Amino acid sequence: MKVIIKFLVLTVILCSAFFGWYYFHEQSFHDLTTPYLAKKWVKAELNDPNSAIFRNTKGYCGEVNSKNKMGGYNGFVRYVAIHEGLVSFEGETYSDFDESWRISCELTLKEWEVEFCKENPEAVFC
Prior knowledge:
Elements: H1 2-45, E1 53-58, E2 61-65, E3 77-83, E4 86-89, H2 97-106, H3 109-119
Antiparallel strand pairs: 1-2, 2-3, 3-4
């Protein structure tokens, strides 16, 4: 009986340690790869990707400064990197950049859910 109890206690400890490590590993992997991917996608849209200087990066949002075709720096511009090939820069013809920035970069997930549910009360998860 003592052997079975020791085995169960050991199993519970090992399982909880594994799941704790797995959660931490997955979260830190996501935190490390998100800015890398966003910067990669932004650089692909620039005239001179090697001259890119990033600041205030948070997830898929941030500011970038890079050289233009004449070789001079333009100044820092906000960006929202949605996906590879789909990067929005402040000042482009995209009319809803400010709204995209607010939703993607300023709101927490909970704040976004509250706003979404106000506008779509019939949604399943509201």
